[in-house]
């Protein structure tokens, strides 16, 4: 994961939502992908 925000913080923030339903779990994945896309456009984090 390439993010400015620490990954453990993101997991802690999203975990309560991810546990509720399949819909929310999918939504979390979309948000994570969106964050990665935004961060990768800022610079190369590889």
Summarize the structure.
The protein has 46 residues and is mainly α. The chain has helices at residues 7-18, 22-42.
Summarize the topology.
Layout: H1 7-18, H2 22-42
What does this entry look like structurally?
By secondary structure, this protein is mainly α. It has one domain (7-42). It contains two helices and no strands. The chain has helices at 7-18, 22-42. The N and C termini lie close together (10 Å). The relative contact order is 0.20. The mean pLDDT is 69.
How would you describe this structure in keywords?
46 residues; mainly alpha; 2 helices; 72% helix
Number of domains: 1
Q: Approximately what portion of the residues adopt beta-strand conformation?
A: under 5%
Helix fraction bin: over 70%
**Intertermini distance:** 10 Å
Helix tally equals 2
Low-confidence stretches: none
Biggest beta sheet attributes: none
Shape: flat
Strands, count: 0
Rg, nearest Å: 11 Å
């Amino acid at each position: 994961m390439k993010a400015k925000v620490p990954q453990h913080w993101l997991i802690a923030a999203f975990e309560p939502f991810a546990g509720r339903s399949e819909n929310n779990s999918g939504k979390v994945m979309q948000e994570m992908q969106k964050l990665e896309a935004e961060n990768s456009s800022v610079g190369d984090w590889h």
